[in-house]
Amino acid sequence: MTMLPFCVGMLFRLLTLCILRTSAENPCKIIQATANCSHLKLTKIPSDLPSNITVLDLSHNQLNGLPAANLSRYNQLVQLHAGFNVIAKLEPGLCQKLPQLQVLNLQHNELNKLSEKYFSFCGYLLELRLGNNRIKEINRDFFKNLKNLRTLDVSHNNLQSARLGSEQQLQNLQELLLSFNSINQTTKEDFHFLSNTSLEVLDLSNNPLKEFLPGCFHAIGSLNSLSVENINLGPDLTKTLCSELSGTAVQSLRLSRNQLSRIYNTTLEGLLKTNLTILDLSNNALSEIDNGSFASLPHLEYLSLEDNRIVQLTPQTFSGLSNVKFLNLRKSLGVSKHSQIHDFSFQQLKHLENLIMDDNSFPGITKNMFTGLISLKYLSLCNCAIQLKTITNTTFVSLADSSLISLNLTKSGISKLQSEAFSSLRHLQVLEVGHNNIDQELTGDELKGLDNIEVIYLSYNKHLTLTSDSFRFVPSLKRLLMRRTTLSKLDLSPSPFHSLQNLTVLDVSNNNIANINEDIFDGLQKLSILNLEHNNLARLWKSANPGGPVMFLKCLRSLQILRLGFNGLDEIPVEALKGLSQLKQLEMQSNMLNLLKPSLFDDEVSLSLLNLQKNLVTSVEKDVFGPILKNLENLYMGYNPFDCTCESISFFVNWLNTSNASVPGLSSEYICNTPSKYHGISVMLFDNAACKDSAPFRTLFIINASIVLVFMIMVIFILFQGWRIQFYWNVSVNRILGYKEVDRRREHFTYDAYIIHARKDTSWVDKNLLPLEKNDNFLKFCFEERDFDAGISEIEAIVNSVRISRKIIFVVTYRFLKDPWCKRFKVHHAVHQAIEQSLDSIILIFLDDIPDYKLNQTICLRRGMFKSNCILFWPAQKERVNAFHQQLKVAIGSSNNAN
Ligand SMILES: *[C@@H]1O[C@H](CO)[C@@H](O)[C@H](O)[C@H]1NC(C)=O
Ligand SMILES: *[C@@H]1O[C@H](CO)[C@@H](O)[C@H](O)[C@H]1NC(C)=O
Ligand SMILES: *[C@@H]1O[C@H](CO)[C@@H](O)[C@H](O)[C@H]1NC(C)=O
Ligand SMILES: *[C@@H]1O[C@H](CO)[C@@H](O)[C@H](O)[C@H]1NC(C)=O
Ligand SMILES: *[C@@H]1O[C@H](CO)[C@@H](O)[C@H](O)[C@H]1NC(C)=O
Ligand SMILES: *[C@@H]1O[C@H](CO)[C@@H](O)[C@H](O)[C@H]1NC(C)=O
Ligand SMILES: *[C@@H]1O[C@H](CO)[C@@H](O)[C@H](O)[C@H]1NC(C)=O
Ligand SMILES: *[C@@H]1O[C@H](CO)[C@@H](O)[C@H](O)[C@H]1NC(C)=O
Fold first, then answer.
1. Which of ligand 2's atoms lies nearest the C-alpha of 57?
2. Selection from 796, 798, 705 nearest residue 757 by Cα
3. Percent of the chain having pLDDT more than 70?
4. Which domain holds residue 704?
5. How far is the CA of 184 from the centre of ligand 3 (A)?
6. List of residues 6+ apart from 161 with CB closer than 8 A
7. How far is the CA of 294 from the centre of ligand 4 (A)?
8. 381 in the same domain as 237
9. pLDDT greater than 80 at residue 742
10. Which residue has the higher pLDDT, 455 or 885?
């Protein structure tokens, strides 16, 4: 019984889950008020979309109809896209259920017969697309209720006629697309239904048109733009068309692909009574243009003759085209060698601003070829086979009266620029001479006269040699591009760029440059884009570079984009990128960078894009990358051998997890290389949690390591200097603990010095020390053999004697070091005494040359413990014995203070 409520609960949950499931499984993409159900093989309109959608895309499905009942749920629809289905019929109620519909797209369906009822309620419709159906005829006024329609597309059907209705209608239509039908003629009656319409665009292209019957275009209220393309009109039908257009408002006529091989001086005559501004005659295999053919087009502004085979242009070809601003002659001249452009051919084009002559072949630029083009601003002569090998000071002399702003000579086979080659072009701002074969030293004179130049594009030439004066005459230059020009000699002083104060873009990439001077970019205060990629700059930044690293980027305060990829860089000095505070984009991909120095990027705080792809970066640590990652928006750092340990990668993984920056390829390109545990695994799978506790561990580790280190240092110190510590320790302890200080005054001692010596050295003492007593009455030694009282034990005697002697003399010999008494007791006691008293009470006399370590090993004393005047050496030479005695007396007489 207790199970029942539980079971019911489970069942309920399962049910709700199922319901949620099915609704979640609705495969349509719903974004705001748009439901996109395209490409889903739907056979029915989904009934579970939000009812307030305004756009529904049902295209590319298998719908065979648009049941009004199903659509009534979405009565706020503004756009309905139902193209690419198998719809053959429409329901009359469609627009009734969708009263707000503006766009109805039914292209690529199987509609063949329309009905008056289909669109009778579609008054709000603005756009109706019925292209690519099977409509053969429109025999009733199906569209007459479409009072607001602006676009009607019935292209790609089987219409025999342009007549889409009998009575006047579609008064707001702007665009009528009738292309790709079977219309073979147009009559006045055909277009009567448009008699109240101001049509912007009428497209009749790709119809088998044979006739334009009188008055056909005049039947249209007004017509702005007519396309009659790909119909093989030929010269005759073109002429008819033009005369039918006479007196209409047509402004744009597109006649391309019509096999119009020749234009007679009468062909376009009919256009005289129009205000035609645009004429497209491209792709017509046009070879001859009679003189004066365009005389009837005084209003023409745009003329395209692209892709034709014109044999010649004469001074009369363009006569009458006084208003043309844009002339497209791209690929328009015949391939035969005879085609030519006569001098003064363009002289009539007083208002021409833009002349495109790309992809042509003609004998050359003659002295007066461009004469008369007084308004010309843009001239493009790209990819022209015109034997332009050398540009001399006369090549462009015919343009001296124009105000040319831009000259494009890309791919024109130029190999040399002579002195003042462009001096006629005083207004020129943009000069493109890229992709040529220029192979020369730029002395500066070539560019002389370009007083207003702003852009020079020299990229992709054979071999440019710069000099310090190369750009002397073009100080107004803003963009200089010299990519892949085998630039040799860039280590010039002064720099070739020194005069270019206004330069903002410099591209010297792909040049294998290996040598540049530190001052190469000096003074380029406005430089904002610098492209140095694909060079060989690695050596300049190596610390091992003779003379030190070359900081060639200094002073570039305005730099925003810096490209240093593909340079073999394996080192970047910390100062290399200093001061580049405006930098937004730094690209250093495909180098060999591994360990970057801390604070390298400290000044690059406004960086938004960093590219370090394909380097040898193993760790991304905070002290290097912290500043640069702060405001970053795009990071490219894949294909590096990341070391996935807490120290190397923890900071980076944290950043990746929290940053909003875009990091393309994060899961596939950021792969751990080491340690073996993570090898081949995505950086994102690195277990960062394990590093969370590493901070206390780290401090612990540091403390431990420090302790061990200090300990080791102490051990080593003690090993070599321990005696000193021990000694001073004893001295200090004895002093502090207040051992009775032995009175230092002479009267308290019986002897001046107690002599400790090996038994075997007795005779030496007897002979060399005792005689001193006789010479000096005040001196009194304590000498065991002579002064010890009989009957007292030797130990006691020694202790007493030491106590009542002011100084203790060690006679140090090898025998002394071996003598057991001396070693074990006498020295020990004496030292003890000395410590109590003061260390200066000991005097060492060396008879043998005994190394310090031996002394230390045997009696734990070192020379360093004593003042130098307490260490005496018995001289080998007899003459010095007196001096020795004198030293000894001084030592015995000296104070016992251990200072
Ligand atoms: C549509 O209606 C749903 C609720 O039925 C509402 O959440 C949504 O915001 C509405 N969308 C629009 C575009 O009005
Ligand atoms: C629906 O999505 C397809 C691509 O899946 C896209 O081409 C189409 O433009 C989208 N339709 C609408 C109305 O946004
Ligand atoms: C146009 O086609 C119709 C029928 O296909 C034909 O009767 C008529 O003669 C054709 N007109 C021309 C000018 O070819
Ligand atoms: C057209 O050219 C012919 C000769 O080919 C000439 O006789 C006639 O005058 C020209 N017509 C015009 C309008 O220039
Ligand atoms: C051409 O333009 C002028 C001035 O705008 C106008 O008066 C004239 O009627 C136009 N011609 C035609 C044929 O539309
Ligand atoms: C062109 O250069 C030649 C010398 O190379 C000179 O004699 C001639 O005057 C120059 N012509 C012009 C137009 O500058
Ligand atoms: C010059 O021509 C080349 C090749 O056609 C083109 O890529 C370039 O954009 C042109 N330059 C200008 C300023 O139009
Ligand atoms: C550099 O630019 C400034 C500001 O645009 C301008 O005034 C100056 O004349 C330019 N210098 C040269 C040498 O063209």
1. 13
2. 798
3. 89
4. 694-731
5. 6
6. 137, 183, 190
7. 12
8. yes
9. no
10. 455
Please enumerate in sequence order all residues whose Cβ is within 8 A of that of 300, keeping only pairs 6 or more positions apart, or say none.
276, 277, 278, 279, 294, 321, 323, 324
Same domain, residue pair 705 and 824: no
Give the residue, 767 or 102, on which the prediction is more confident.
Answer: 102
Domain identity same for 746 and 855: yes
112's CB contacts (< 8 A; 6+ apart) are: 88, 133, 134, 135, 136
* Nearest ligand 1 atom to alpha carbon 53: 13
Q: How far apart are the first and last CA of the chain?
A: 103
By alpha-carbon position, which residue is closest to atom 12 of ligand 4? 265
Sequence-distant (6+) residues with CB within 8 A of 733 are: none
- Nearest bound ligand to the CA of residue 51: 1
pLDDT digits over 618-657, tens only?
999 999 998 889 889 999 999 999 999 988 999 999 999 9
What's the average model confidence in pLDDT over 759-765? 81
Residues paired with residue 486 on neighbouring β-strands, in sequence order? none
Q: Of 23, 49, 52, which is best to mutate to test ligand 1, by the most ligand atoms within 8 angstroms of its C-beta? A: 52
* 236 shares its domain with 297: yes
Question: How far is CA 295 from its chain centroid?
Answer: 55
User: Which of 306, 356, 410 to mutate for ligand 7's pocket (most ligand atoms within 8 Å of CB)?
Assistant: 410
CA distance 248 to 21: 63
Same domain, 628 and 706: no
Q: Considering the domain boundaries, does residue 504 fall inside one? A: no
Q: Report the DSSP beta bridge partners of residue 354.
A: 326, 378
Q: Is the distance from the beta carbon of residue 393 to the nearest atom of ligand 6 less than 6 Å?
A: yes
The secondary structure of residue 684, as a DSSP letter, is G
The neighbouring-strand residues paired with 846 are 812, 873
Question: Which ligand sits nearest to residue 82's alpha carbon?
Answer: 2
**Under 8 Å between Cβ of 70 and 46:** no
Provide the domain count of the chain. 4
- Regarding whether 888 and 763 lie in a shared domain, the answer is yes
Ligand 7 pocket, residues with Cβ under 6 angstroms: 380, 382, 406, 408, 410, 430, 432
- In terms of domains, do 639 and 720 share one? no
Residue 649: CATH number of its domain: 3.80.10.10
Q: Which residues of 395-432 are buried (b: 16+ CB within 10 A; e: fewer)?
A: bbbbbeebebbbbbbbbbebeebeebbbbbbeebbbbb
Is residue 142 situated within a structural domain?
no
Q: Is 59 in the pocket of ligand 2 (CB under 6 A)?
A: no
Half-sphere exposure of 55 (CA within 13 A, CB side): 11
What is the residue with the minimal CA distance to atom 10 of ligand 6? Answer: 393
